[in-house]
Write a structure and sequence with these properties.
Elements lengths: L1 H7 L15 H4 L21 E2 L3 E2 L11 E8 L2 E7 L4 E8 L2 E8 L3 E4 L8 E8 L9 E5 L13 E3 L12 E4 L5 E5 L8 E6 L4 E6 L3 E2 L6 E9 L7 E7 L15 E5 L3 E3 L6 E2 L8 E8 L2 E6 L2 E6 L7 E9 L5 E11 L12 E3 L9 E3 L3 E11 L9 E5 L2 E7 L12 E8 L4 E3 L4 E7 L8 E11 L26 E7 L16 E9 L3 E2 L2 E8 L2 E7 L9 E8 L6 E11 L7 E9 L2
Parallel strand pairs: 26-33
Antiparallel strand pairs: 1-39, 2-40, 3-4, 4-7, 5-6, 5-8, 6-37, 8-9, 10-25, 11-14, 12-13, 13-25, 14-24, 15-24, 16-21, 16-25, 17-18, 17-24, 18-19, 19-20, 21-22, 22-23, 27-32, 28-31, 28-34, 29-30, 29-33, 30-31, 32-33, 35-36, 36-40, 38-39, 38-41, 41-42
């Protein structure tokens, strides 16, 4: 378990931290560097092996081909779904010149983005069993569509296909200490907004600078929409409407906040019980929240799936789209479109870099140009149970009061708490070569300060001046998809009746069964095979690339516990990829043989 966690958290999604196997090329070279021997070759194959104490499984008949293949066209994309129960699938997309995409997936759905409109594509889907055996293909042909769903009820629609993606005048990203970023995607995702994050279980928020303003139009007050491939498996998508200038919140909601919670299995509207929905991961869905005088309704791809009698008490709110990562904390979110029924976007001045960790003074300072002042928007948190409110913000030696972003919101330890402070133009002092705004946030007791998790600045432009572009926080580089990984490994010991052995303690010597499960969801790296070790000695090898790389699966290995000495033993399962750039997978367990 520990090794697997280290492997899976050794990189950050979308380039936050990039770990590149730069020495891979040297592994196949006979040259020496500084007199040192080259590293050993990377293992990309597994040989069939059975020791005296183990009986591994063998391949059976080939799997049946998937049925019910459906291909749905969209702008520059195709979505394919099918019905089958294989551990994985080999999906090929064929264009005019042959195969243009080839992916291994564990779900029964896939989305191809970045396609050319007006071109016919063929989708071939083969079932892949636990040993890499492939079925005959199921095939369908389709071409990307130029039509979109009706968006006439949205005054603001962003398809993220313009020259500036994302448009900072429309969208701001809030997260804990720069654990996430947003930008245009690259490659297949170059017509999408991409958010990549390594934020643990904390949510990342995409805030709209355009407020949602309610206005009765035949009973409809307003609506918000997002088309995205999130939530991924074990993730959450939150649609929030906050009646105040908040950027980042959590389960301690500011008063009056309207939150819709979407998981792969259910949706929950305020004032209503969760509603089960069909799982639809790996492909984009269009979620629409409609506010009416008689309640709320949530729609997915044009079909209403949930409703509530809740009516918000406010007429204007900050729209926020929040993304909660899976247990491993790594998220990659593709966004195809966002829409709001109101379009009154405030004038925008690019804010400077803001730091709350370096309050020291710098002899090199300058006033920010072209602004009349601004509102500092902060999210603070602390685990200390000391008096905190009211908060103050120090900027360039001057202290300004800070208030809750939403009236009536009460600070509580451990929860995110959004606050705001109004700053005059002469307080916007930029320091150092990076031209950053340095701030210090304090509680009511000067010696006890909260942690600033996010900071942003909404500036008021001066009609008589022009801001300097050098004073803006630089834009982020395009995001890339995270590297492929192998499916996640888990182990279970079973008795002769097929029941799990509690605490891995065998009550008698004899035959036991080790069940190894490799589970995946979205695009996976190819699986070459598994090797099982007991106390560092290899006892079994299971190849999983009969017709090509495996994807996922479940294997049962019979073990003779009588072949091992009494007492505890360490078991380790290693999974190897057919790709030398993919790190091996690991699972380990401790088990005990009776005396």
């Amino acid at each position: 378990m520990e090794r697997r966690l280290l492997r899976r958290t050794g990189y950050a999604v979308g380039g936050l931290v990039v770990v590149v196997g730069a020495v891979i090329a040297l592994r196949n070279s006979d040259t020496r560097t500084n007199g040192e021997l080259p590293p050993p070759p990377v293992q990309t194959t597994v040989k069939d092996f059975a020791g005296d104490s183990a009986l591994p499984p063998k391949p059976g008949s080939r799997p049946e081909k998937p049925h019910g293949l459906v291909v749905i066209a969209g702008p520059h994309r195709l979505q394919a779904t099918w019905a089958a129960s294989a551990p994985g699938y080999d999906v090929q997309l064929r264009g005019e010149g042959g195969v243009v995409r080839n992916h291994l997936v564990a779900d029964n759905a896939i989305q191809f983005d970045g396609l050319e409109e007006g071109v016919d594509y063929q989708v071939d889907v083969r079932a892949v069993d636990s040993f890499g055996q492939r079925s005959e293909p199921s095939s369908a042909r389709e071409r990307p569509s130029t039509t979109r769903p009706d968006e006439s009820r949205y005054a603001l629609v962003d398809h993220f296909d313009g020259t500036l993606v994302p448009d900072p005048a429309r969208w701001r990203l809030a997260n804990n200490a720069a654990c996430a970023r947003m930008s245009r995607g690259v490659g297949d995702d170059n017509r999408r907004l991409v958010i990549s994050a390594a934020c643990g279980s904390e949510s990342v928020a995409l805030r709209s600078r355009t407020p949602l303003q309610l206005k009765d139009n035949g009973g409809e007050l307003g609506r918000m929409m997002i088309e995205t491939d999130y939530p991924a498996r074990d993730g959450q998508l939150l649609l929030d409407l906050v009646p105040g200038p908040a950027d980042l919140i959590d389960t301690s909601l500011p008063p009056g906040t309207l939150r819709v919670k979407i998981t792969p299995e259910s949706v929950t509207l305020p004032g209503a019980e969760p509603v089960a929905i069909a799982r639809r991961t790996s492909v984009s869905s269009r979620w629409e929240l409609v506010l009416r005088t008689d309640g709320l309704s949530l729609w997915r791809n044009g079909a209403r799936i949930a409703s509530s009698t809740y009516v918000p008490p406010w007429t204007s709110a900050t729209p926020m789209f929040e993304f909660v990562g899976p247990p491993n904390g790594l998220s990659y979110v593709g966004i195809d479109a966002i829409g709001l029924s109101s379009a009154d976007t405030p004038a925008f001045v690019p804010p400077p870099r803001i730091t709350a960790t370096n309050p020291s003074k710098d002899p090199k300072t300058e006033l920010m140009k072209g602004v009349l002042g601004g509102q500092l928007r902060l999210t603070v948190r602390t685990t200390l149970r000391e008096p905190m409110t009211p908060f103050t913000v120090e900027v360039a030696g001057r202290v300004f009061p800070a208030r809750p972003a939403v009236d009536g919101h009460v600070f509580a330890p451990s929860f995110r708490f959004p606050i705001v402070a109004d700053l005059p133009a002469d307080a916007l002092v930029l320091s150092g070569d990076r031209k950053e705004l340095r701030i210090t946030v304090r509680g009511v007791t000067p010696t006890v300060s909260p942690v600033v998790q996010h900071a942003d600045l909404e500036l008021i432009p001066d009609p008589a001046g022009r801001p300097s572009p050098e004073q803006a926080d630089p834009a982020t580089a395009p995001a890339t998809r995270p590297p492929l990984t192998l499916a996640t490994l888990n182990t279970t010991f079973l008795d002769a009746a097929g029941q799990a052995i509690k605490d891995n303690r065998f009550v008698a010597r004899g035959r036991v069964v080790l069940e190894v499960a490799a589970t995946g969801s979205e695009t996976q790296a190819g699986l070459a095979g598994l090797e099982i070790f007991v106390d560092t000695q290899r006892v079994a090898g299971i190849p999983t690339a009969v017709d090509g790389p495996g994807v996922a699966g479940r294997w049962r290995i019979a073990l003779n516990s009588g072949a091992f000495a009494s007492g505890p033993h360490n078991l380790e399962v290693k999974a190897f990829s057919t790709d030398p750039n993919v790190a091996p997978g690991y699972a380990s367990a401790t088990w005990s043989v009776p005396g």
